[in-house]
Amino acid sequence: MPIQAMIAEGDLVAVYFICEGKHTGTPFAGVPATGKSVTFSLMILLRISDGKMIEHRSHVDVRDILRQLGVPA
Question: Which among 21, 27, 19 has a CA at the least distance from the CA of 59?
Answer without folding.
Answer: 19
